[in-house]
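Model it.
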Amino acid sequence: MLLRTKVGYAIGDLGLSIAYFAVGFFFLFYLTDVIGLSASAAGTVVLIGKLWDGVNDPIIGVMSDRTRSRHGRKRVYLLYGAIPFAISFALLWWVPLDVSQTVAFVLAALAILFFATAYSLVAVPYMAMVPIMTVDYDERTQVIGFRAMFSSFGTITGGGIALLVSQEDGVESALRGISIGFGVFCAVAIFVAAAAIKGIEAQHDADIAKVPFRRYVALAREPNVSTLLWFKLLGAVATGVLTATLPFFAEHVVGSTGIASISLAVYTITAAALVPLTNRLTHRIDKRRLLLIANILAAVLLLILGLLVNTDSTVLFLIGSALLGASMSAYLLIPGSLVPDLVDFYEYERGERHESVFFGLWMTIHQIGLGIAGFVLGVFLQVFGYDGSADVQTESGVLGVRLAFGVIPGIFLVIAALVLLRYGITRGRFEEARRALEIKAPPTRHHPAQTDGRRPQPDA
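Modeled.
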């Protein structure tokens, strides 16, 4: 596959990640400390959005697999979903301040429902393109690596700028202005990805067999599928709590959202920079064991940062952020590379190919995990007496923030990695499945990115 195809496709993740991480890092804090909702009410808003994701992700996955369009089964959703996605992101930050808590709650819930729908409409088909773009085990990991690096830039841009804006006096006006600019940029990134993958799906329209809808439910109970979904659920709770807690940790423990923004940049740049190294390590070390080692290290680092950092620990916080980024590089790369293999393996084992359905299930569980994370965090902070309207938090409230940041994510990361050890699609089993599929497939199947009949060229 050409390098420009990989990079162009990966740019789409920049647009998705800007929106995703701006919401993940800042939306709960925005609802409590800007809009004025209670922590539990804000957590409920997040949960509502994620539960709806749990419904719409598999539906969009089925729709995508069954779509027939001259633009491609998946690419058509990128072309027509980019603008609604941009609008839905901007509207999140336009909840009025001069209304009652009940009205604010309803408006915030409606906004998150719109965003969740539009995001899924683009993200599910986008992610499901990977198994179509290439059939090579390592090349798929490389494509995910490119996406991970652009995702890291999106983390810095979306999450970092949101954190910086939070220290301005007119935070609501600043957010509204930035949200429009971000929305436009996100739409452009999705259009770039759609242009990069033009024509790739043409040779695969006949690959998808229509099966009864009940079969999609049964797929989630398959041993390897259920293991991967449990892993994703636990990991999503971990990362969801971590990202949503960062603004609280920055404000009430570090004492500076500016330093928190720098630490976020240090974390993501380190993680992205080490993705190529992690990719090479996956050639030598089983992905499951590599992720377990990395997640245990991340849990230890989070515990140290959560309990020891204070307003006088800027250097410790930044060093810890860099080390945390290094350890989380594996989590940035490995999970996303597992699902494309699942698609091919079940085509080999069951004779059914469900790209978007598997990615829809993957995103469904991810969003449910994030919803659980937001709800648990909101209730957890409420139990410790956190009050978003208070100028100074109580010692109990600050302790709740420390524990939410330093303990909860680490526990879930380790449990998730332990669950993944049960995943049975290793490199050997996948390559056996690919060889069997190669024998059955027509010649064009070997090079899905090539559509003009010429021999595929090596990467630049």
